Amino acid sequence: MPFIPHTETDVKQMLASIGVDDIEALFDEIPAELRIGNLDKIPAGLNEMEMSRLMHERAAAQPQPLCFIGAGAYEHHIPAAIWEIVTRGEFYSAYTPYQAEASQGTLQLIYEYQTMMAHLTGMEASNASLYDGASGLAEAVLMAVRANRKSKSKRILMPVTVNPTYRSVAQTIVENQGITLELVDYPLAAGCIDVASLPTDPGDIAALVIPQPNFFGVLEDVNALTDWAHAHGMLVIAVVNPTSLALLTPPGEWGELGADIVCGEGQPLGVPLAGGGPYFGFMCCNLKHVRQMPGRIVGRTVDADGKPGFTLTLQAREQHIRRSKATSNICTNQGLVVAAATIYMTLLGAHGLNKVANASHQNTQHLSEQLSSIDGVTVAFSSPTFHEFVIKLEGVSVGDVLNALMADGVLGGFDLSADYAALGEAILVCATETKTAADIAIYRDALNRVMSRLKGGAA
Amino acid sequence: MSNVPSHLKYAKSHEWVESLSDDTYRIGISDHAQDLLGDMVFVELPEVGQAVSVQNECAVVESVKAASDVYSPLSGEVVAINEALVDNPDLVNRDAYGDGWLFTVKASDLSELAGLMSADDYIELRSDDDH
Amino acid sequence: MSNEMNSDLNSHQDGVIFEKSRSGRINASQSPRESAVSQVIPAALLRESPPMLPEVSEMQAVRHFTRLSQKNFSIDTHFYPLGSCTMKYNPRACNTLAMLPGFLNYHPLAPVETGQGFMSCMYELQEILKEVTGMKEVSLTPMAGAQGEFAGMAMIRAYHDARGDSTRCEVICPDAAHGTNPATAVMCGYKVKEIPTKADGDIDIEALKEVIGPQTAGIMLTNPSTVGVFERRITEIAKIVHDAGGLLYYDGANLNAILGKVRPGDMGFDVIHMNLHKTFSTPHGGGGPGAGPVGVSDRLIPFLPVPMVGYDGAQYHWLTKKDRPQSIGQLSAFGGNAGVLMRAYIYARLLGREGMPRIAEYSVLNANYMMAELQKKGFDLAFPSRRATHEFIVTLKRQAKTLDVSAMDFAKRLLDYGYHAPTTYFPLLVPECFLIEPTETEDKDTLDGFIDAMAKIQHEAETQADMVKAAPYTLPSRRLDDVRAARELDIVWQPNEQTE
Q1: What is the pLDDT of residue A329?
Q2: Is C417 part of the contact surface with chain A (CB cutoff 8 Å)?
Q3: Is-contact C329 A168, C-beta < 8 A?
């Protein structure tokens, strides 16, 4: 039987020990009328060879076009060593490190991860991770309402330049607790928040969310925004791209006092796109707020012999002890994915991560210049960007353009028309370090052909 | 048998109350409560000037095993907090009725004192707990 | 765990990765080529000094993390009878086949035309989970059990709200419930009412009748329950809750015990979450990622979280808020933990319809065998009159009282014998408990070895209690000082320690 080791002799001996005649007898406490017969709609089992054949066929139905989509998930080179180590059984098949003495490997790795994330974001503390960037923002909002002791407010300022899916996920998760997310608009030409347009008397608000870069790839004026929020008694929640932090000011150094809570999507750190997950959300803060932070945290301590060792700490905040008064219902972190990110940051180091950030930035600049040279294509915003930018198309529909590009083997970007109708026909485009000059030329030539064909057809 | 000083009043939720003057009262958790919680690792205190109301949570004592809310036995305004607990939360373990006090309240409704227990009643309540 | 790993002689090699770092050491092969420095980003937005990340060679990194891995217990190396966690073997084919490049390189926002292979797997997984749970529709998107719970309770709330029934403010949980249950109810804006468990392990139905009423939004149950027995009067409970206008939520933590035997949908549940990292054998990964799909009865279908996968007979497509305007919304940036779902799909296809009931049969056989044998060795069962399901509870209250050796001491000593400890101190209502779940993938010899070890530790506890109380001895660490860990918080390594 697949994955069941019992022989007939084993079963006989075990039943005799229990004192029943057959295995069915072990289910005699289940009311008979509830028992089911066959699971007819489920296909019969396959052996490994048959399954392998099936999955190779399914994978072959996944063409891999040249991809210029980012919008929250980014294609980066993943060093070979990472997943070789991560899929070792000792990491892959271990459980949550509740028995610390039998989990020192996972625990030390998480401590090293926490250290890397704290230094990358410029904060004093990091948790062991959350599910993903979007749900991480929701947890950051809940945390800010708990942590801001100066404010009694459950209002949060949420810029429209934050990833629209993140806003929607945060809304789903926090709305039942009476928290309101109030949108902050942006000027259409700049593509980022205008600090001067913010109210001088915003009232009692728990926190301001600041994305860096924002969903358009544009860099926000994080220093002025942070100071404005603090001047009005708000906490600052930074939503950041971890790759960008090798190049950009870490949130801990924004403005006079730095951000209070930092969160974001960890996928760019060595995690494959994989259809959207598993990724991981990171969260950092300073020590004065650490007890309000959700999720697991590993601490270094000593054992009975005085040797350094690692253990889960601050567990009293968590659901398995505090139940209905816990900081969150979260149990797991994304342990295995965090292991990948930790090894990624180790292999690249600050120097390598900076090269990834810089190459992605430069490729995006180059692509932006190339695409905006095409008739009918303009760059939407004047502000500087990190590794994404928005193009506007004249006289064509984005849907038609993206479909035509796909037919040419290019995924041209993310269609913004549903979430940002005011932008007109606009596409969010990304080029990471994985794109060569030749790739960029392919995109330019394809878009050039498509634009002239579609515009010609329309005329 | 843990210590239950007879000059204090007690709440069912294991806080003690000591009269400092006509309307100011010092508040902590009982020796029995600290013993149940175990080694204290953190105490979250209210702020001076904060209004507290009877039987509402106003502080948190956290051990390795549990984080437990402290309910104010009296309504009023917090006039002092035990700042020594910030660095030495184990004072609650070592001296629950002395150096391990939590905060002092200027009470606004002295009739609430009638709702508290004597030491003897508290000892009896605890022995019920043990069953 | 080899003796070499325990030796103090090589412990200087086990420092944190930052202690192995040397300034100027660069792994050129893993990084892109040097490119020009940006001229467009204003200086005020640029980082002034590089972050402190390790500077080590690839070999140093590989050796460091490989050595760390060797300090873990895992299913691949040890028996791991952790109750309520279903630590069964994770078949390797599930990993290998989920990591084919066609799946790994698929951008979640790529057009569905380029994702038909992946989406067909997701669609079929939805169908399989529907059938095996008896629910009417399934959404795969919750990223963990706790998020599935959240989705479930949010749907219950959305259901009442949609009917204009705004007086329902309470959720009922048994006192033995997982801690996530009350925490989730609060996240959804509900107050929690706890009801007691009776001495035979069933819910106290009289207590349920007392607390239920027009203010009840629903009840959260696990069946088999967290105390390791099947709730026999489940149909009656479902009727009481439904008659009061409430809904029933099923925590799928213990689905392994009943897979293919009885279905939550048939028991009367309105919404369930499944832990695919338990029942469907996706790896636990040292604490995630998991996946917590939800299934619902007819009345909750409109509220399911999106996206889901639809099929029009020719093409698979995403169902979004446009298709499901009453949906509670999205719970993740994309569609959830797709890679975990792929592994569960592969596992489900390898088992097939005939393999699923076998899981219940052999996990229940293993648990009942261990329970019988441990009782014969003199251990006390928490619910001796009941059948075990896929797990059961031993209480060490007597040992704690007479020998001053606690369940935690037994747990730590088991590690020395090479067995991961069972779940200790959960459920909270059984004192000094061990919740033991062997799973179906363990053979009889392994179970016998564990039972022998328990008997030996009992003997040690009787003859040399102090030795047991100071265990473990043979692991990379002795017992850790968790009071110090919480009081003197050291959660981020600081470079100035390098000079120590």
Answers
A1: 77
A2: no
A3: yes
Whether C410 and C416 have beta carbons less than 8 Å apart is answered as no
Domain positions in chain B: 9-125
* Minimal CA separation from B86 to chain A, in Å: 12
What tokens appear for A210 in the block?
A: 């600041």
Q: For residue C500, is pLDDT > 70? A: no
Give the pLDDT band (50/70/90) at residue A301.
very high
Residues in chain A, overall count: 459
Distances (CA, A) of A457 to A114, A412, A426: 56, 20, 20
Residue A2, Ramachandran bin (φ over 0: left; ψ between -120 and 50: alpha; else beta)? beta
- Report pLDDT for C21: 94
- CB pairs A-B closer than 8 Å: 20
Whole-angstrom distance, CA of residue C408 vs CA of residue C372: 22
Nearest CA in chain C to A299: C491
Beta bridge partners of B63: B40
Domains along the sequence of chain A with CATH: 66-73+350-458 (3.90.1150.10), 97-344 (3.40.640.10)
Distance, CA of C386 to chain centre: 25
- What is the torsional sign of CA A329, C323, C275, C287? negative
For residue A185, what are its two tokens? 């608009």
Percent of chain B that is helix, strand, coil (3-state, to 5): 25, 35, 40
Structure token digits, residue A443: 């995109």
Which B-chain residues 25-84 have CB contacts (< 8 A) with chain A? 41-42, 44, 47, 62-67, 69
* A35-66 per-residue burial string, b: 16 or more CB within 10 A, e: under 16: ebeebeebeebbebeebbeebeebbeebebbb
Question: Of how many residues is chain C composed?
Answer: 500
Structure tokens at B79: 């006039």
d(CA C64, CA A403): 47
Quick one: how far is CA C465 from the chain centroid? 33
CA-CA distance, C373 to C388, in Å (whole number)? 12
**Which contacts qualify for A305-308: CB closer than 8 Å, 24 or more apart?**
A305/C478, A307/C8, A307/C11, A307/C477, A307/C478
Among the partner-chain residues C77, C78, C350, the one whose CB lies closest to the CB of A46 is C350
Contacts of C482 in chain B (CB under 8 A): 64
**Do the Cβ atoms of C120 and A61 come within 8 Å?**
yes
CATH class, domain B9-125, is: mainly beta
Query: Under DSSP, is residue A125 helix (H, G, I), strand (E, B) or coil?
Result: strand
Name the 3-class secondary structure at A289.
Answer: helix
pLDDT at C496 over 80: no
Tell if the CB–CB gap between A280 and C289 is shorter than 8 Å: yes
- ipTM (interface pTM): 0.96
Determine the number of helices (DSSP H) and then strands (DSSP E) in chain A: 12, 15
Yes or no: say if B50 and B4 are a contact pair by the CB < 8 Å rule: no
Q: Measured at the alpha carbon of residue A316, what is the angle toward residues A314 and A319, in degrees to the nearest 5? A: 115
Task: Mark which residues 385-404 of C lie under 8 Å from A by CB.
Answer: 386-388
Ramachandran sector of residue A22 (left: φ over 0; alpha: ψ -120 to 50; beta: rest): beta
Chain C CB contacts of A319 under 8 Å are 146, 179-180, 182-183
Cis preceding-peptide flag for C325 (omega within 30 of 0) = no
Taking only the tens place, the pLDDT of each residue in B50-89 is 999 998 888 989 888 778 889 999 999 999 999 999 889 9
To which H or E segment does residue C219 belong? Answer: strand C216-221
Q: Residue A141, SS3?
A: helix
CATH architecture of C94-351: 3-Layer(aba) Sandwich (3.40)
> Quick check: A65 and C114 CB within 8 A?
yes
The β-bridge relationship of strands B67-71 and B57-63 is antiparallel
Helix, strand, coil fractions of chain A, as percent rounded to 5: 45, 15, 40
